[in-house]
Amino acid sequence: MQLVRFLAISLVLSLLAAAPARALTLLRDPDIEHALGELAAPILKAAGLSPARVGILVIDDAGMNAFVVDADTIFIHSGLILRMQTPAMLQSVIAHEAAHIANGHLMRRPINARNARTAAGIGSALAAAAGIAAGSGEFAAGAAAGIQGAALRSFFAHTRAEENAADSSGMRFMAAAGVDLRGAVEVMEIFRGQEALSVTRQDAYARTHPLSRDRFRRIQQLAEAQGATVRPDPQAEYWFARAKGKLSAFLRSPKWTLTRAGESGHEDIRLMRQAIAYHRQADLKRAMAAIDGAVARRPEDPYLHELRGQILMEGRQIKPAVAAYARATNLAPGNALILGSYGRSLLADGQVAKAQEFLERSRSQDGRDSRILRDLAVAYAKQGNNGMASVLTAERYAMAGRLKDAKIHAERATALLPRGSAAWQRAQDVLAAAEADEKRR
Q1: Range of the domain at 141
Q2: What's the domain count of the chain?
Q3: DSSP H helices in 20-118
Q4: Of 20 and 328, the one with more pLDDT
Q5: Residue 1 has pLDDT above 80, yes or no
Q6: Which residues are CB-contacts of 45 (< 8 A; sequence separation ≥ 6)?
Q7: Strand pairing of 73-77 and 7-9?
C-alpha cells in the first residue's frame, strides 16, 4: 500500500475568525500500522482492551500530538513518532491514550462513537481534531461532531484530573507490560515549559494534555518507583525501528534516508528503507534489488511483499505487481489494506469482477480508506452498476469534506438503488450529513 496523503479527512471548518480550512490526512500503510500494533499490544492487554479492536492510525502532521475520538482508535501524529527515540517513549504515549479509553474519559464527550466510524462521521470527528491542531479557540461548526457552540479546546482537552488518572493508569499498564517507565518521563520532558507559551505556539499535545510541574513530578516518582532498570525488549526495538524507519523513508528526502538506512542495525529494515528511497528516485532497478534482498531475508513477511507490489505497480509493471500483492494477500488474508492493494492491482490488470471481490472485502473490514471507495466505484461502474458507484462516490466525497458533491451523488444513488437496501441506507446517511451541514450554513 502506498504511504501517501490520500485520505483528506477535511470537513470545512467554519472557524469564528474565518481562518482557512484545515485538513487532517491519514497515512495508511499496513506495515507501519502492524508495527505500531505490535508495540501497542502488550499495553492494550494490560489495560483490559483488545488489540484486535483498538487500532493505531497515523496522521500526516509534523507537529506532536496524539488523541482518541472513540474507543476503537488511537491517532498519533507522524511528527510525534519521528521525535521518539525509544520504543518505551512511543509506548508511553500509547499507554496514556489507552488509559483515557479504559478509564471511560470519552463518555463525557458529546460525540457518537458509532457515527465516527461512518464516512461522514470520520470527517466530522477529525475535522474537529484539525481545529485543535491549528490552535482554534472556538469551533462554530461543531454540530458535525455533536458539539455545536462548544469551545474546541474543551472538546478535546482532558481535565487535569483525567490527565493525572491517565498518567497513573498508563504507567501501571506499562509496568505490567514490562516497559521502562522512564519513557514517559522522557516524553514529558519534551513538553516541559509549554504551558508558559501562548496557545498558538504550543504543540497540540500540550494544549490537549495540560502538563503542570506537579504532574511532571508525579510521573517522575512513578518511574522511580519501578526500581531496577528494565531490560530492552528486542521485539519492541525491532518494530519501533521498522515503523519509524519506513515512515521517515516516505516522509523525508531519499538522500537523507540513504545516508541513514542502516542505523537500526537490522538488515531487512536497511534494505526496505533503501528500496523506498530508490523507488522515490524512480530508480526501479535499484529499488527492486533492495526489496528483493529484504524479502529474501523474511520470505514470509506479507508487508515486504506488499511494498514490492507497490514498487512494481507504480513502476507500471502491472502483472508482476498483481503477483506480488497476491503473495502478500495469501500471507495476510485478513489485512484490509493489503486486500485493497491487491484489488487495485487487479482492477489495473482488467480483472474487474475479481477486483470488486477483494475491494469489497477490504471495505467491509476497514471503511476509512478513501482509495478503496474510489476503486470500488470504478469497478461497479465498469460492470454497469451505477447505483453502487454513486453511493461509493458519495461516501468518498463525504469523507473528504466535500458535502455538496457528496449530496449530488447520494441523491443519484437513492434514485438508482432498491429502497431500504443497505446501500440505499448508506446514501441516506450521507444525505443526512450533507443536509445538516447546509442547515449550519
Answers
A1: 7-224
A2: 1
A3: 30-46, 78-83, 87-102
A4: 328
A5: no
A6: 51, 177
A7: unpaired
